[in-house]
Structure formats: structure tokens, C-alpha cells
Amino acid sequence: MKILIVEDDRPLSDSLRALLENRGYQVETAYDGEAGVQCAIRGECDLVILDVMLPLLDGRQAARWLREQKCAVPILMLTARGELEDRVEGLNAGADYYLTKPFDTRELLACVGALLRRQGGQGDQLAFGNTVLDLDGSTLACGDRWVLLSARELDVMRCLMRAKGRNLSKEAILTRVWGYDSNAVENHVEVYVGFLRKKLGSIGSNVRIEAVRRLGYHLEADGI
Q1: Which of 98, 111, 112, 209 is least surrounded by Cβ atoms within 10 Å, i.e. has the fewest?
Q2: Cross-strand bridge partners of residue 139
Q3: Torsion of CA 122, 124, 121, 21, to 10 degrees
Q4: pLDDT of residue 123
Q5: What pTM does this model have?
């Protein structure tokens, strides 16, 4: 799971990054609203922790812009202002939860966990079209037909399903599945997409992995 922190207070950003990385999350940071939305719109993160008071584009404007662009990534908004009107404004802008500074790190971690579970769908399954991805069992199923996925196939399919039909670049998939420090190249993504296409076909799925030149891949399904 990858979390984007958009916070211009660098000591706080560094502290949050250390906290989350110690819990096993991958973390990316941005220090102004414009950089934050550009990172988020790439589709490389599973959660955005977004400060309200940011340079260039404040947190509410950033959240509103992301929602207008149909970016469904969960947003945990941080602010020093805890009045009811501020919370309502933040939620109306598109935030999923509103946490007031100073906050207890236990509450932050609980919010992060809850939002990531919600992002993962019901329980440990993701669905698109007539097809269900079981994260615990590493299987792809359509009706009573199913196929086992390798660890890499599971991770690539999970990225595509969580994108809900949005394009994901090969670079984004590489980063999320293989990591920043990997020697993997874009051809690895192409190979695993090929594996997944065959497995979708083998179970009679109506889901297709479509390629768009220079934009990457997205899912389509008959009737959607």
C-alpha cells in the first residue's frame, strides 16, 4: 500500500513518513497543493494525507479538483482548524475524513487503516464486470470458474481493479508492483498483462485489459 503525504511543514511530513514506513507502507511526499494533485492523479497511491493550509493550491481546492477529475483515492485531511464549519467544508470538498492537529498517532493510524480497508472493497475482494479478484486466495473468478494467480499477477490485477477503469501508466504499475528500487522495466508490465489477459479469457470473464498508447492500461467490461 502506498500513501501520499501532502504537507508543507517538512518536520511534520518527515515524522509522518517515518511513522508510516515503520508500519510497512510505501510513502511519497509533496510539499504544495499543485505537486500533490499531480502525484495523486497519476494513480500511484492508495491514500492521500492532505494538509489544508498549503502553498499554490490549498487542501480543499486540491481535494475538489481531484474529485472533479474522477479521482476516487481516499483523502484524509489534516488541519489546525477544528470548527464544525471547517470540517463540513473539508468533507464537502471531497475529503473522506477530517483530522484536527494536534492528533494522536494512534488515531491517525486507525484512520489510515480504515480508509485503506474501504479502498480495498468489501472484505478482501475486488470486483469489476462479472469478475471477482480474491486477495486472500489469489484467485480470479467468474461465476463457478476460477484461476489461481501468481503474486505479481495478483498485484498487477489489484492495481487495475482499484483504478476502476482509469488509465494506469506502465511506470505507475512498475512503481506500485515492483517498487522504486527494482531493476524491472516496462516490458515486465507487458508480460504480466499478457498473462492476465489469457487467464481472464480462460474463465469466460467479460473484463478486458485495454492498452492506450502512451497512457498505459485500463479495464473495460461489456455493459459498463
Answers
A1: 209
A2: 134, 148
A3: 130
A4: 47
A5: 0.57
